[in-house]
Design goal:
Length: 177
Amino acid sequence: MKYIENFGRKPILKWGAFLLGICMVAIYALCHICDSTKTSNIGLSKATGWACVMVMYAFSVIYGWSWSSVVFVWQAEVFPIRMRAKANSIGTFFQYVGALIIGSTTTTLMKYLEFYTFLIFAGFCFISFFFAHVCIRETKGLSLEEMEHLYGSKPSAEDIKVARDIKDKKALNNIES
């Protein structure tokens, strides 16, 4: 969480997507080299295979550092309080549906497209880079009220009252010990 606050959401998502795309291109290239050299040079093939595994580990670390974690923080911040729980539920649902689709189609894609599958995934990663660059606004350091203005939402009267009470610390007086 601290790195998200230090670097910001948008840069982590943007550059995370870019690095994920680079990893996918690298996996494609390494698998292609490994496949083309498997009969001619066993040593190169084994070393390339290990390099491919290391890039896959790098992909996992980068994904965990960026899109797997920051999305949950970002989506929890951008929605108004009155709809935050439902929006987070829907966002989480679609993230898991996306993971299910990727997980269930990868073997079929690998069967028919072989290593070119990684180029398709790289394409989606680079599209995500541009999506993050164009569509996502930085929310680092913004209050919930500023967040609603950032995305053009108008807070309801209830939201304004709750925010004012919190600011005035009146809401804390209603908490039982």
